[in-house]
User: Fold this.
Amino acid sequence: MLRREFLSSGFAAIALQAAGARTEESLKQAAAPSGLLVGSAVSYREIDEAAFAELIARQCSIVVSENDMKWKALRPAPDKFDFTRADALVAFAEKNRIKIRGHNLCWHEALPDWFHKIAKPDNARELLTNHIETVVRHFKGKIHSWDVVNEAVDVQDMRADGLRRSPWLNLIGPEYLVIAFKTAAKADPGATLTYNEYGLAQDGPRNEAKRHAVVALLRWLRRNEAPIQALGIQSHLNGNRPFTGLQHFLGEVRELGLRVFVTELDVNDKSFPPDVAERDRMVAGVYRDYLHTILEERYVDAVLTWGLSDRDSWLRHREKRAAGIARPLPFDDQLQPKPAFFAMQAELKKVSRRD
Ligand code: 9MR
Assistant:
């Protein structure tokens, strides 16, 4: 049996579980020689649990706030900011010498109810700049990179420019994107400013159209002097659809001089067979093939999964399934490494050179 087959077969994980030991090389250790950062989304609630906090500290050189830095979490009222949970996350990361990404400053979702009541074309710009200034200044010097704008493209909204008809677009117009980046840059010139988007990794007509629209948006941002430095490729992968168009897309992004972060990586196993071992092996295969493809690109600086343990995955709460439960992440419900973990570890180890 080849080493890769052995690792992805799950035998290695089972042997370790039986030994009750944490002897496997961590993701952070596997990625260290190449300088690649690796980590996960975390939430305030999760780091309260000692075993989970330990797992994060052992595996991650970078984390991202899953929900605690969103408008809904930070803005209980129009004139109030509550940084309690987000501060706890940043303190946890600092204490463990883990870098932290900020997610996110401008999105069509997770807006507080009051926003929809009071936001109007004549105050929206002020709401946006005040929020970004206050939040980014609050964390100044502590954030590795900010998802300044999240998911601004939706080709199904049928605009010529591919932009999503989000509250921000409706209230301010396309310049909201430039305003958001300029405001963030002023408030913390040290953070890497990122545009974060889904539906880019795998092939398919809708994703292909989205790749075109995102490249056009990135070029437009450059032309309009938006200080953007990176693209976050959300990687909510669906089954084992191919990634053949990804390299070409990454080439276009590179031509714009942008760094790339693999953000929000997980694998939806809904279309895989019900048998758990079989499913875990297939999920691991997708991790392996995807990372193999995307890590060829030297401008990729970080890989972050959307959670570490299956038990915390957003997919568990989102979908009703006829049978079985989602197992999209590298660790199982008992925080034990799965074949996906070993697939990640092996691919991270293969990355040899970084800028
Ligand atoms: O995982 C997040 C879930 O817990 C939240 O309820 C939801 C709404 O705020 O957001 C989820 O995370 C999303 C991320 O912020 C942006 N890309 C898609 C993610 C999954 O929906």
